Structure formats: structure tokens, C-alpha cells
Amino acid sequence: ELSIQVCLEEEYEFRQVDLPGLRFCCPQVEFNDKPDSLFFNDGVRRIDFILVYEDEDKKEFEKRHTFQRHKASLMEMGMELEATKSVIDDKLLFVKVHMPWDVQCTYAEVLHIKLPIQLNDQSLRPSPLRFFSCITKRFYPNEDLITKEAEFFTAPFEKDRLDLFYVRDKDVFFTASMRSRMAFYILSRAPYEIRGKIKKFGITKLLDGGVYKAAYPLHDCRFNVTSKEESCPNERFLLYEEWAHPKSFYKMQPLNLIRKYYGEKIGIYFAWLGFYTRMLALAAVVGLSCFIYGYKTQETSTWSKEVCSPDIGGNIVMCPQCDRECNYWKLNSTCEASKKLCIFDNFGTLVFAVFMSIWVTLFLEFWKRYQAELEYTWDTVEFLEQEEPPRPEYEAKCIHERKNPVTGVKELVPHTACERCVRVSIGIGTVLFWILLILASIVAIIVYRLAAFFAFSAKLRAQDLKELEPLKEYVTPQMATSVTASLISFVVIMILNILYERVNTNIPLEGGWPSRGSGLPLGKIPERGGTVWSQWAVCYCDPGGCLIELTTQLSIIMGGKAIWNNIQEVLLPWVKNLILRHCTRGASEAAIPRWEQDYRLQPLPKLGLFYEYLEMVIQFGFVTLFVASFPLAPILALVNNVFEIRVDAWKITTQFRRIVPEKAQDIGAWQPILQGIAILAVATNAMIIAFTSDMIPRLVYYWSFSVYPYGDHSNHTMQGYINSSLSVFNIDDFSNYSKPLMTPYNITTCRYRDFRYGPGHPRQYEYTIYYWHVIAAKMAFIIVVEHIVYLTKFILSYVIPDVPYAVREQIKREKYLTQVVLHETNLKLVTKLARMDEDIRPYSYTHDYKVF
Predict the structure, then answer these.
(1) Rg for the chain, CA atoms, rounded
(2) Taking every annotated instance into account, which residue ranges of this chain make up the domain Anoctamin transmembrane (predicted)?
């Protein structure tokens, strides 16, 4: 048990902790009126971490006891502490943590941190853009502010071989992010209670238990003002000026400085986001070209002309789109919708879908190469396999023994086999519940679409509502239903996301997706023999096709999520910080010490970059999975990402406390997720073109049926396609329940979108041969396109190496140098020991002889 004493000595307050054979004290000092200082009051020892303790109730002895035990444990591990009271709130106590040089060396070796051993005598292949440096330099950060650092070959640090490393100055040998990472490693493993086999440790548990209010490394200065301290590098200010400030939106990111200041995990995220955005530029150009092509050809499209023609579309009477309340309507009333559909549903869409399937492969392959360069430059090669330490939360739960089948040694594990089965079962049950909730939401939206479609049809097709007459040309029942259903889908997705965050800490499943919008009949089709007509069989798509509905839903959901996420990311932390500063007013910003300024910022969420990656991966899914229906998706994603990079940069630089640096070799589990999306995108786009678009029926008509009326197979034309895609229904076959309330006296038949034999045919209302030709063509199209694209993707993946040749050579060079250095050191050590053995051996023999 620890005995705690509080003693006063002159102006200092010492909290003294007596342990067997040890004596520790943590002085509490007054603020020295140096708000920009990053050091203890002596101006020598640098602050590596800050712990914030709030003594809310003097009677909470257990918290104060735990606080003292944890401080004693930290000092026993070699850390030096200094406490300072808040200048605003007397209850707050800021504990400054410093690691002496010997402790830094020890934990640098424990964490296998790579440090320079020799200047890099090789260089990567120069960029071909160097010839245009006079132009491209304007798109890079200012080199006068962010200077390029020298490149070194590195090796894992070894304390006993310090003389082999390139040490110019001990104060800057370990960067601030390295020291913060080492300090957090110690804080995460410093015990505060030991009872038998149960050992409690970790700063995370102390934060959750309320012992500490916060724990964070320090920003080196204010983001908009440089520090007055001469030794301060002002890296935060440089990041804000050249990266996070809106005026720098067009500049490339200073990735090396981001990595140096925030660590590799943050650096790799922004590197991936920047690379993804640059690759989107190519896809956006091609997608915009396809959109312009569709826009220019909408007036010349044959099927669009037929729909709009008063002689063709104006003479075709369409069947009602709901029971009783809906009336008959003319085909040319959907003229505008048919023109809009031609913008997206054209042959350029097929080309763009194939292009995007190739693009996504190139994106993933070139990212692997770029990632390999970053791995080498940032010293994270083979990090995950060799250097990643176990999480302290995992270590704390390891109380059960199990024999390792590989080593044969007993080791501690967190759960028994039975407990693991129970936890897995609960996890699977929870995931299944959310999947069922998603399916229920989708079914509810489909039911709404049907009900809303019938309601809008009854209103917008009503001849007696004169006030809606100006809108009928632009607002169709299909468009009104699609827009409202898309808005409801967007709201459902947002609500489910919030619920996932509250309930489930696993990967959230995105609730809802765009409905297929295809023209499959819903219900029974009247069979030959006089079966009554069921209105559920009428397709609710426009006669020109169904793709416009999927396009509408994608644009609303994708655009809505992007706008909502950016507003949320900007406003929420800014408003929280504004309220906090308003509630804690009492001193000017220039009079508040650095550690207290950072405490008033927002802490990084527990899941860190998880939701940032999730947002971008969902966007990546929209861009690739449904691009056949929405060629403008890449350009919307490009515009969003240009803002997303600066919003994220502004947020972590100005509104959040400094993030604890973490190592990361790559983007982790998101890489196989992206690869899975890329594979799935080929199938989804092929099926969208086959089943949602009208491209295949048009092609079948163009190559097979359009020549029959003319008898010359050399003359292919799209004339007559609209008439061939509409089947005929006898209005006398309506049941009393389905029959419209108002029936014009001069019509006996109406048309609906399908390929069936008309009344009077021996196979009345059965599928025509044209239908089976279309189905066969759709299946053949899916198989052929998938195989061609997958083969192309496989060839590209094979011929593009994951690691550039120059990087491979540098990795080999670094390994060689490391082996040479270690070999020479070991050789010198062996030689020295051999000489010592030769000097001692004669005396040993004589001594042994005399004893004998």
C-alpha cells in the first residue's frame, strides 16, 4: 500500500509518495507568464504530454488516491512531472509530463522507431513535370516556409549503438511526434492498481473513469500567430497557412510536414484522400463529356422525338396508372421527361461505365505504388508485421491462461473459448438485427413509392385541376414520387447512421440504397381467357425508360450526404469551441498558457479517422457502383473532395487538440473494402445497363426488328421503337374495381409499357418473341461485358507492379547498409572480446593450475 503525504515547502507544494526504497515528488509551480512556452518552468525540460486533473469534490478520496498512484507509477517508469494550476479555473490542475533522454532512448528501442544512420546517396526518379516547374511550383506549398528536409537511410533504434546513428542534437533527435507517441505508450501502460492477477492500467480507463479530464500532446503554437519562443518550429502555423487555410485550396498538400506533426496515420489518410481526388479529375472529365454528349443529342434522339411528336405520342392513349382515380393520358405528356432521360440513357453511358471499371483498377494499382513510396519515405515498411505493439486495453483483459500451439508456452488471453463464443454470437445477432432493420426500411420506402405514385398520378393526371396545368409538362407522377422517396431515403440513412454510432461500434452498415426503378410488373398480368386487369401490372416508369429515377435518387442522396457532412464537420466543432470560450472568459488568449489553450479545444472522437474513411468509401461506392446511371457522380465527388480536404485540415488544425501520433503502414482494412467495391462495380453497372436502362431493348430493336418493315437488312433505323415497346390493352377487360371513373367515349384500347401480345391474338397478353430476344440479349450483355472487363482488370493488375523499381532499389540499399553497419559493429565487438579473452587466458590457466 502507498502512503501519501502532502507537504509544503516555501512557495512549492510537494505531493510525496513513499514506496519501498523509492521517493518521488511532483512539484506544483505557478504559471511563469510565458504563454508560448513548451517547457517546464525551468525552460529546459520540454513538455511531452499534458494530463488534466479536476478536483471537483474533496471527498472523492478514491479518485485522488488513484491519481496519486498513477503519478507515482509514471515517475517510477522514469517520467518527470510538474503541476500548474489553471489561470481560469482554480479546480483544474495541469500535470506536465517530460521524458528524460535515457527514457526516450529506452522506449524508442521498445517501439522500434527508425532513425537516420546515413544520408541517402540515392534519389527517386525525377518527375517529368520538373521541366514545367515555373508553372507547377505555384501549386505547391511555399518552399521558403516549408523547406525540404534531407533524406536519410534509417534503421530501428538501438540504445547500445547510439554512436551509429546520425545524432546532431539530442534535443531534436527525437521529433515532437515521436516523443508524444512514446509518452502515450508509457501512459497507456503505467499501472494504477494491482490486485493479484488483475492489473489495472491505461490512461484511457482513467479518462473514462473521470480521474483525468483530458490527456493530449501540445500544439507548438497558435494556428494564426507564430510563437515568440525561439526554439519553436511553428509547424502548426505553417500547416494552417499552406494547407488548412481556404486560400490554399488549389495547392498540393505538404504531406511530409503533416506526417511529421500528426503522425503517419493522419498523413496516410490525407495522402490517400489527395490521391483519390487527383484520380477523380480524369473520371470527372470523361463523365462530363458523356453528359454533354447526352445533352446535345437529346433533341435528335429518335425515341424522344416520337414521344414528343403530336402525330405519334399525341395519338397514343396510355392506360391509367392507378385504380379508378387515375384517367387515361397522352404519351406526349412525358415529352420533357423523355428528353431528360436521353441525357443519361445513351450509348455514351455504356462507354463511360466500361471506362470507370478500368479507372477503378488503375486507381487501386497506382495507389499501391504511391503507398509503397510513402511506406519507404516514412519508415513504415513491414511495420504491421513486426513493430505494432498490442493495445493496452487488450493487455488489461488478458487474465486467462492458454497454451500457445506454436511456441508451446502458456500465455494470457482475454477470453476463454466459451466466453468468445458468447461474444461472437451476440455480435452476429446484433448485426443481423440491423440488417433486418435496413430491409424493413427499404420495404417501407417501396410501399411509399407505390402509394405516392398512385396519389400523384390521381392528382397530376386529373383533368379538372386547372391550377396544376402549367406543371404537368415538367412534374410527372414518376418525378414527384422519385424526388420525395429519395428525400425520405436520405433522412432514413441519416437516422440509421446516428443509431449505429450510438449502439454499434463495429463497421456501420449503410441504411438504404437507390431503388432499382426498373419496369418489372408488380402483380398478375391478365391471362388469356378474360382475367380482369390488375393496375399493379402497369409500370410506373416513363415510357422512355426508368434510368432517370435512379439518377434522381442518386443525385439527391449523394449530394445531400456531402452537404450535410461538410456542414456538420465545420459547424459542430466551431460552435462547441465558441460556447466553451464564452463560458470560460476571464483572460485574453495571449495570457493563457499553451496547455490551457489546447484544453479549450475539442478532443478527437474515439474512433478517430473511422468516420472520415467511411464517408469517402461510401462516396467511392456511389462513384463506381452506380456510375452507369449517373455520369456526373465523379465531378460531384471531385468538387466535394476539394472542400473535404481543406475542411478536414482546418478542423484538426484549428478546432481540435493535437492528435496523438500513431504509426500506420497503409489505409488498413479499407484497402480490401475498396477492392471488393471495384469488383462489385463491374456487375452492378452491367446490370443497371441491362435491366434499368433501355439500351439493350433499343439495340435489339435496331439490329433485329427495325429492318422487318422495310425488308432490307442494310437499313437499320430506330423509327417505330416507341410503338413496338408499348403493348395494347382492351379497356373492356378492366374489372369494376380497376376501371377508371371517367372513360372517353372514343377509345377502345390503351397502351402500356411491356412486350405482350394484344387483344384478339391467340396468345393474348402473353410475352412476345421480342421480349425473349431482349432477355437473352441482356444476359449475354452481362456475361460478355463482365468477362471482358474482368480480364482487362486482371491484366492491368498483373502488369503494374505494386512497388516502383526505384523504391525497391532503395529498400535493398537501406537493408544492405543496416546489415553492414551491424556487421562491422558486431565484428568489432567480437574482436574486442577475443583480445580480452587472450589477455585473461594465461592468468586463468595459472590460477586453475595452482588451485588444482
Answers:
(1) 35
(2) 258-505, 536-814
Q: Pick the range with the lowest mean pLDDT from 298-307, 394-403, 747-756.
A: 394-403
Give the integer Cα–Cα distance in Å for 630 and 689. 11
C-beta of residue 812 within 8 angstroms of C-beta of residue 720: no
**111-141: buried (b, 16+ CB within 10 Å) or exposed (e) per residue?**
bbbbbbbbebeeeeeeeeeeeeeeeeeeeeb
Task: Give the pTM.
Answer: 0.82
586: three-class secondary structure by DSSP: coil
Q: Which residues pair with 24 in a beta bridge?
A: 17
Q: Given a cut of 70, is residue 709 above it in pLDDT? A: no
Instruction: Write a three-state SS string for 66-109.
Output: HHHHHHHHHHHCCCEEEEEECCCCCCEEEEEEECCHHHHHHHHH
Q: Which is nearest to 240 in space by CA: 145, 359, 174, 102?
A: 145
Write out the three cell numbers for 153: 537511410
Phi-psi region of 608 (alpha: psi -120 to 50; beta: other; left: phi over 0): left
Q: Quick one: three-class SS letters along 326-363?
A: CCCEEHHHHHHHHHHHHHHCCHHHHHHHHHHHHHHHHH
Q: Kindly tell me the sign of the dihedral angle through the C-alpha atoms of 163, 165, 166, 167.
A: negative
Three-class secondary structure of residue 414 per DSSP: coil
Q: Express each pLDDT in 514-571 by its tens digit.
A: 332 333 233 333 333 333 344 333 445 655 556 777 788 888 888 888 888 888 888 8
- Judged against a pLDDT cut of 50, whether residue 647 lies above it is answered with yes
Take residue 240 and report the three cell numbers written for it: 494552417
Instruction: Provide, rounded to the nearest whole percent, the portion of the chain with pLDDT above 90.
Output: 19
Residues 6+ apart with CB under 8 A from 482: 517, 548, 549, 552, 553
Those residues whose C-beta lies under 8 Å from the C-beta of residue 705, and which sit 6 or more positions away, are 724, 770, 773
Closest CA to 682 of 780, 792, 776, 519: 792
Q: How far apart are CA 521 and CA 510, in angstroms?
A: 28
The answer to which of 113-117, 586-590, 676-680 has the lowest mean pLDDT is 586-590
Element of type H or E holding 813: helix 805-851
Helix, strand, or coil (residue 29): strand
- Count of alpha carbons within 13 Å of 405, Cβ hemisphere only? 0
Provide mean pLDDT across the span 52-77.
78
3-state SS record for 233-288: CCHHHHHHHHHHCHHHCCCCCCHHHHHHHHCHHHHHHHHHHHHHHHHHHHHHHHHH
**Beta-carbon-side half-sphere exposure of residue 110 (alpha carbons within 13 Å):** 16
Q: H/E element holding 195? A: strand 191-195
Name which of 363-367, 594-598, 615-619, 745-749 the model is least confident about: 745-749
Between the alpha carbon of residue 653 and those of residues 183, 245, 602, 607, 658, the distances in Å are 21, 10, 11, 18, 8
- Contact of 532 with 329, CB cutoff 8 Å: no
Q: Which amino acid is at 581?
A: R
Residue 230, Cβ density class (10 Å: 0-12 exposed, 13-18 middle, ≥19 buried): exposed
